[in-house]
From TrEMBL:
Presence of keyword NAD: no
Listed name of the protein: Uncharacterized protein
Organism of this sequence: Shewanella cyperi
Keyword terms, alphabetized: Membrane, Transmembrane, Transmembrane helix
Transmembrane stretches, start-end: 7-29, 112-129, 165-194, 206-224, 252-269, 276-294, 300-322, 334-351
Amino acid sequence: MRFSIVLCQFFLPIMAMLSAIILLISLPINGDVGWLFFATKQWIAGKELYREIFEVNPPMIFYFMAPSVYIYNIFNLDSVIVVKLYLFFLVSIMVSVNLRLFYRILGREALISVYITFSIAMFYIYPFYDFAQRDHLAILLMLPYLLNKYLVMFDNRRVPNMEGVAYGVMAGLSICLKPHFILLTIFCEIFWLIKHREFKRVFDGMLIFQIIMVSLFACYIFIYEKYYIDEMIPLAIATYWTYGLSLDKFNLIYYFSIFTFIVFSSEYLKSKRSKVFIRFMSVMTFAALIEFLLQSHYSYQLLPFKTLLYINLFNLYIAFFYQLGFSKPYFKSLTFLVLALTSGFGFYRYIDNNLNLLRYVYENQRLPSFKEIGLSNLDESVSIINRYFNKQNIYVVSTNVWPSAFISNYTTANWISGFPALWPLPAIVQSEHNSSSLSKEVISKIESEKPKVLNIIAKEIEYGKPSAILIDSREFPSYFYSGFSYLDFFKSQPILNGVLDDYCKFGLKLYIGNNVAYEVYIRRDINLPCYSLDKII
């Protein structure tokens, strides 16, 4: 028995964390994270948020990213290394706080034996490419508030004053990052208010400091970032939040079946403590689902819902494990042994297959190249950009945010657009070519924002004078109808028609991302051979 417990308590967490570190090394920087680092760097250097940097997120995320920029500026390290280490450290602090609270809920044995490994897998590995995305950080910040609320309201635990303040502030920061997360707080308070019918008990210090944090941030926005309220939110409502992926892309039936299983299974729990906790977390999971549905539907926005769902499912398994008598020494030893062998083998296989990456980092004191992680096409694109456009301006015509992160963090070229991607264009095109799918009110909003967007694009190209313009040349560009062409769109718009007259095709394609091809067009005056003497429009 002792051997199996030692495997679960020490061997599995070490293997899980090693797997998480390898995963961190082996993935390129997340597109949104890479862009936000670059945008924060521009903001600290003097550019104005929401006037020169066009970001739909509230400004709190820039304050979260600011320390990484200062570290980068002081030590002059590789930006990707700085961002990854900084965010890994930030996530680790949040996970540690959550583990401390799970210790109080589950007990020492369950936490050490299985929950630490589960937490590493859930918070470091499961997010995969979306690790440290805004939604990932937000749910990690909100969880301590929710867990401690359960301890206070059900177990009557007394929370030290400073600890309660910290959890309230963390929840407030979560809402400042993701305003939709206010739904989790509302559902949380309603749940306990219905259960206890004591308003004074629900309205505690944690909630007060959460409200104070959110209120102060709202005042800051209205006073110092008024342009975000007056200009950016209307633009985002009219364009960015008009389109998104179809709900059938997210396999919601599968997740909802798990949610239903948890809700009905919890009724068979004999432990009132476990039953109330599962019910409470089910309500929070449902709130996270509504929070997702209210947004524009991107995969990373579903991460908070899936995180709460799997945490609740795991807690249900633990509750039934003890209820069904598997906690007896023989069963416990056998269960832990099977868990250690199966999970350990999975972690071992992953580590063994990617051990060369750890060796590469140790020997070269830097992150592996794209070629080393199996993305040779990106390595070639880096070489081409650095060879022909070193320290020169580049403009990208695409709705994908990844090129902004790629060019600003992996190449020596300069990203000059204030947009991370041209995210307003799909809504503008939709209003022109498929207006029947939009209401008259939405079309009116899009039409009112359209001249501003097109003028920004025209001025960025005119005044930035990029040496190269990369244009997404896919047959089905993201969020557009079949056969859409950026070049045809530019030609059809009086504001944009002519801004590309000084450019010609370079004669090559750059592959950036998942084999997404970008046609390269260059200025005629930079002494590079044009593939065609014709203007691109």
